[in-house]
Structure formats: C-alpha cells, structure tokens
C-alpha cells in the first residue's frame, strides 16, 4: 500500500486560510474525506498530486515531496474530477482511454490490450467507438475513471465522483471502487459511499475535526452538520 503524508500543511487563497496546519499519514486502502462546502476537502485532495502546492508544510507520496517531484508523483496518483467533461479529451471512448497511455512507451499491441481490458472492466466495451461527448453522465464518469485507471496508478484520488450521478450509476461507481486494487482517497458528500471504507476524515474550516472508522467519523459529521 502507498503512503500519503501531510506534514503541517496549510494553504491560503487570498486572505482565506483554506487548509490549516493539517498533519496526516494515510496508509489505509480506502479513505474518505467529508466536510461542509468550502471546508477545504478538494484543496487537500488536489495537494496529493500537486494540482495545488501547499503554502506551508509538505505533502509526501511514498516519500516523494509532491512539490519537488510532481512528475514522478503524478505517475503514481490518478485523479478523477467531479465533472468528467473536464477530463474527456478525445472524440471516442476508446481513443480517450488510449490517450492516457501516449507517453507510456508501450508496444502498440500491448497498449491496445490494456485499453481493451480496462474498457471491459468498467463495462464500456460496447461503447468503445461511441462519441465520448454523447455518453450519459454516468457513462462519462466511468470513462473518466477508465482513462485514469488504464495507467495503473498506485493511488486513485476522486473528488466527488458520484455527485452528478443518479442512484443506479452511483452504485455502479461504488461497486467499481470496492473492486479496485488501488489505494483510494475519495472526497464525497454521499456518505453511504464511504460506509465500508477503512477510514473517514472530517474537515471543518480547513482543519481535521474527526478521523476514525466510518461508523464513528460519519456520525460525528452528521452531528456537526445537524
Ligand atoms: N482556485 C481557487 N481560488 C480561490 N479560492 C479558491 C480556489 N479553490 C478553492 N477556493 C476557496 O477555498 C475554499 C475551500 O474550497 P474547497 O474546494 O477546497 O472546499 P470543499 O470542501 O471541497 O468544498 P465543496 O464541498 O463545496 O466542493 C472555498 O472557500 C473556495 O471558495
């Protein structure tokens, strides 16, 4: 399992302290992050692959300082955004998944086999030649996930991956998460998605206010927002 370490991490946007002196060691397989709107969850998640650099402190992924070794870290950390439209770049489903591997120096046949296996795994094989922009919201989320997973990152960070989905597609994504070998860090407002995770972190005003197994941390969060 990978290890993600936050050492006294703070971040400001303008005059607002968005992440406030967070220290964490994340070594569990599936970790959820919850908190009210604007509590700093996305900012914290984005620090794991260097999309945001902390103003103070350090973030380490498997011992690599994310701010200094961003390129190596990004090979280990796949990031799935809330809105899959921001992530889909190629005309068809298959091309979009294949695009991720363009710099992986794989033989053409090996790359194609990996793309096919990933499409199969996420139930996208029948949609492989469809225009990506015409997929449903749920199918787009699955495609965004496929395009990240095809690179076989050791860590998957997903920022509200089910927010735009109906209950059925949200369950589909939850099932895929349950079957992944990767270490998973998921920011979500859908608490049921995190119920069988190993650990849940609750944020408020940029600080960690609860950090426990889901049954305890989610209850603490429910009390907080009641
Ligand atoms: N790029 C940015 N520039 C300026 N302010 C930002 C930026 N990104 C986030 N913020 C601000 O930082 C604060 C924390 O935002 P963040 O997205 O981390 O919260 P969040 O907990 O993920 O919220 P939500 O649940 O609404 O997605 C918010 O007040 C937000 O407006």
From TrEMBL:
ABC transporter domain residues: 4-225
Molecular function in Gene Ontology: ATP binding
Keywords associated with the record: ATP-binding, Nucleotide-binding, Transport
Statement: the UniProt record of this protein carries the keyword Transcription regulation: no
Family: Belongs to the ABC transporter superfamily.
Protein name, UniProt field: Energy-coupling factor ABC transporter ATP-binding protein
Source species: Agromyces allii
Lineage: Bacteria, Bacillati, Actinomycetota, Actinomycetes, Micrococcales
